[in-house]
Structure formats: structure tokens, C-alpha cells
Automatic annotation (TrEMBL):
Keywords: Disulfide bond, Glycoprotein, Golgi apparatus, Membrane, Signal-anchor, Transferase, Transmembrane, Transmembrane helix. This is Sulfotransferase. It is a single-pass type II membrane protein. It comes from the Eukaryota. 3'-phosphoadenylyl sulfate binds at K100, G101, G102, T103, R104, R181, S189, K305, G306, R307, P308, H309. It comes from Urocitellus parryii (Arctic ground squirrel). Residues 1-23 are annotated as: Disordered. Residues 91-330 form the Sulfotransferase domain. Belongs to the sulfotransferase 1 family. Residues 1-21 have a biased composition (Gly residues). InterPro entries: NST/OST, P-loop_NTPase, Sulfotransferase_dom. GO terms for biological process: blastocyst hatching; heparan sulfate proteoglycan biosynthetic process.
Length: 342
């Protein structure tokens, strides 16, 4: 089974013991040790909760610059407009989840649209960087002209308990896009990404279950993310279902133009991105973008996308399918969509 994945995962305990006495530590060496400890802690915190740098010093209100539309290249009306003109605005739409569902693919497909301006990196504002403030968040956004939509995607928002309230406080009219995928496949994809970075990781089975093939371990993030109905319940405390579009990660692979068409409709955009923009890459196992005018080659997602999944015993897959089935059915009822995972 081909796919890609990444999980936030893994924890461990380490204990060290020592005994014996030595000469008293001199003051300069003690000071150096303290400085090294503080710097080490600072670097670790920075790695674990990185916030992107602001594009400029945040202002209380954006200054209006030129609003004249830049010229588009003849023969390429379906390419994104790149310009320094316009305003930095809060996103009107967010891809809020889910991790390893296909969010990066969807974002790259949408960026073909001339009326979509999207932040390429994940700002993690509503989960990790909220203390930076809304002015800082807005300063990260690309400039947009009148009629264009500002977007960003951070898949961890969907499973962050505080995110719905924070997003609602920014704008109760925000449109929310959730890309979902069979939770079993998603979990294995999640594990595959971590395994590529941590080869010594325990087996998928050892992490997914407690005590061999005992109870499913919902404390493991790769499992917990797939409880879509539980996460959605938290969001529905702040947003009605009319604010959501649920995109099938499977159909994003089998029919990318159809799913992207639904997203364009949801955003109130003309269907500019169509089947003429895609071709299926058999090696990677998912669709890529055809070569654009002025480009030397087609565009596919990076090497981390399309990596093979580790082999997971069928008994493990079946146990997880049985575990997720009631959660999936509840999610189908909540969204009025049957994603066909059962």
C-alpha cells in the first residue's frame, strides 16, 4: 500500500545514577555548565515549538498599497498571480486537518487558482504560536487583491482542543476544510513517516496496542487522530456544519479534479482547476500537476510523499478496522457523507 505519512510520536524515560565525591566545582566551570544548560533547553524548546518569522513588523492595521491587478501571462489564465500589491488579510479559509490525509496535495492543487493566495508553510498559529498575537499572524499572510482568498493549512488544528475557539474569535465566518482518510491507512502512513526518521522505532503493532493485541492505545497520536467524530464534536461547539467541507483523501487521489472542484465551489470560486491540470504518477501512486507554461517539468510533491508503507499484519489491520468502525459510522452521520471505509 503506497502513501505517505508522519506522526508526532514517541516518548521515553531515561534515568541516570551516579555516586562518589570529587573536588568542589570551581565557580567559572559551574557558570559555564549553567549557561550550557540554559542554551540547550532554549534550543530544545525552539525545535519542539517552532513559530515562523514574521514577514514584517506587525502593524495594528494593514496599510493599503496598490490594488491594481498585475498583468497575467497570455495563454496562462489558470496560473497563480504573484505580486507584492494588495493587503495582508486574515485567512478566510483554513485547511485544518487531518495530518497525513492529503492536506499538502490539496493546498498545492488550490494554489493553481489565480484567486487563491496561500501560505506555503504551516504557521501553527492556533496551536503553538497563539501567544504571538493576531497582528503577527496576519503579518505572515501573502498579500491579496480584492476578490482573492487568503488561505493557510495546519493539519494539527483539527485535533487541538483550543483551536476552534481561537479561530472563531478571529472570525466566526471562517470556512474550514478537513481532508479525511481511512483512519487505519492514515495511522500506518503516520507511522511510516516517523519510522523513516527514527529507524529504531518499535513496531506499529507494539505502539497501536497495549499488551500485545490487547486494547487499542488511543493515547498514541497516530491512533487518536483517526477518531474524527470526537474531534468534530469539539469544533461543532463553535461552528455549524455549514462552515465545513470534508474532502475525501482517497478521492483526492482517484479523482483530484472532482474533489478540487468541490473545494472551489465551497470557496465560491470559479472552477478553474480541472482535470486538464493533473496526471497520475504510477511510481508515487498519486496525481501530480502537469507541466505549466514556462516550467521545465511537471510538479509532484516531494520525496517524503509516496513513500511505501511498512508491512502490517492483516490481524492488526482487522483489529483496527473493527475498533474504528463505530467512530467512522458516527462521523458519516455527523457529516452526512459515507466515505466507504467499512
Amino acid at each position: 500500500m503506497a502513501g505517505s505519512g508522519g506522526l508526532g510520536g514517541g516518548s521515553g524515560d531515561g534515568k541516570g545514577t551516579g555516586s562518589g565525591q570529587g573536588p568542589p566545582l570551581r565557580a567559572p566551570r559551574a557558570l559555564l555548565a549553567l549557561v550550557a544548560l540554559v542554551l540547550g533547553a532554549y534550543c530544545l524548546c525552539a525545535l519542539l515549538g517552532h513559530c515562523p518569522p514574521a514577514a514584517r513588523a506587525p502593524a495594528l492595521a494593514p496599510a493599503r498599497i496598490e490594488l491594481t491587478s498585475p498583468a497575467r501571462r497570455p495563454g496562462a489564465p489558470d496560473l497563480p498571480v504573484a505580486s507584492g500589491s494588495g493587503l495582508r488579510r486574515f485567512p478566510q479559509a483554513l485547511i485544518v486537518g487531518v495530518k497525513k490525509g492529503g492536506t499538502r496535495a490539496l493546498l498545492e492543487f488550490l494554489r493553481l487558482h489565480p484567486d487563491v493566495r496561500a501560505l506555503g508553510s504551516e504557521p501553527h498559529f492556533f496551536d503553538r504560536c497563539y501567544d504571538r498575537g493576531l497582528a503577527w499572524y496576519r503579518s505572515l499572510m501573502p498579500r491579496t487583491l480584492d476578490g482573492q482568498i487568503t488561505m493557510e493549512k495546519t493539519p494539527s488544528y483539527f485535533v487541538t482542543r483550543e483551536a476552534p475557539r481561537r479561530i472563531h474569535s478571529m472570525s466566526p465566518d471562517t470556512k474550514l476544510i478537513v481532508v479525511v482518510r481511512n483512519p487505519v491507512t492514515r495511522a500506518i502512513s503516520d507511522y511510516a513517516q516517523t519510522l523513516s526518521k527514527t529507524p529504531g522505532l518499535p513496531s506499529f503493532r507494539a505502539l497501536a496496542f497495549r499488551h500485545g493485541l490487547g486494547p487499542v492505545d488511543t493515547a498514541w497520536s497516530a491512533i487518536r487522530i483517526g477518531l474524527y467524530a470526537q474531534h468534530l464534536e469539539n469544533w461543532l461547539r463553535y461552528f455549524s456544519l455549514s462552515h465545513f467541507l470534508f474532502v475525501s483523501g482517497e478521492r483526492l487521489v482517484s479523482d483530484p479534479a472532482g474533489e478540487v472542484g468541490r473545494v472551489q465551489d465551497f470557496l465560491g470560486l470559479k472552477r478553474v482547476v480541472t482535470d486538464k491540470h493533473f496526471y497520475f504518477n504510477a511510481t508515487k501512486g498519486f496525481p501530480c500537476l502537469k507541466k505549466a507554461q514556462g516550467s521545465s517539468r511537471p510538479r509532484c510533491l516531494g520525496k517524503s510523499k509516496g513513500r511505501p508503507h511498512p508491512r502490517v499484519p492483516q490481524a492488526v489491520v482487522q483489529r483496527l478496522q473493527d475498533f474504528y468502525r463505530p467512530f467512522n459510522r458516527k462521523f458519516y452521520q455527523m457529516t452526512s457523507q459515507d466515505f466507504g471505509w467499512d
